[in-house]
Design goal:
alpha/beta, five-stranded parallel β-sheet
Length: 130
C-alpha cells in the first residue's frame, strides 16, 4: 500500500527518487508520466534544455504544491536504459533542464519481486514505497 505522506516527505530532498507499484500511480495526482522504455531518440532527440516532458511538467508544477515526474515500468527495461535516469535523480537535471523544486521523481515496478530488477546504481538513489 502506497504511503503518500512518505512520498511527499521527499519534496525538496535532492538526489532521491521513489519506487512504487504501477497500480499505485493513479493515487499520485499532478503528474507527468513517461515510459522508461522510451527510445534514446525520443528521450534525447530534443534541443538542450527542452526534454520531452518539460512543458507538461512545468505546467503541473506551477499549478500544484507537489508534482510528480513518473517514470513507468523501470523494471521492464535493461540496466543501461535504467541508468539513463541516474543523473535526473542525482542532479535533478536532464539535458540542461533543471527540475522544479516541488517535483518528486517516481519510478514504477509491477510487483515487489521486480524491485530486484532495478539497477543497483539507480536503486542507490531511491526510496522504496510499496
Amino acid at each position: 500500500m502506497i504511503d503518500i505522506d512518505l512520498i511527499e516527505a521527499q519534496k525538496g530532498i535532492k538526489s532521491i527518487g521513489v519506487i512504487v507499484f504501477n497500480s499505485d500511480i493513479q493515487k499520485l495526482n499532478n503528474s507527468c508520466n513517461i515510459d522508461a522504455g522510451l527510445s534514446d531518440l525520443d528521450l534525447f532527440g530534443v534541443s538542450l534544455g527542452h526534454p520531452i516532458f518539460k512543458e507538461k511538467l512545468e505546467k503541473v508544477s506551477k499549478e500544484n504544491e507537489i508534482s510528480y515526474l513518473i517514470i513507468s515500468n523501470i523494471d521492464k527495461v535493461n540496466e543501461d536504459k535504467q541508468n539513463r535516469f541516474i543523473g535526473l535523480v542525482k542532479d535533478r537535471e536532464f539535458m540542461g533542464y533543471n527540475l522544479p523544486d516541488n517535483v518528486i521523481i517516481v519510478f514504477t515496478v509491477e510487483t515487489e519481486s521486480d524491485i530486484k530488477k532495478v539497477s543497483k546504481e539507480l536503486y542507490y538513489f531511491c526510496e522504496v514505497n510499496i
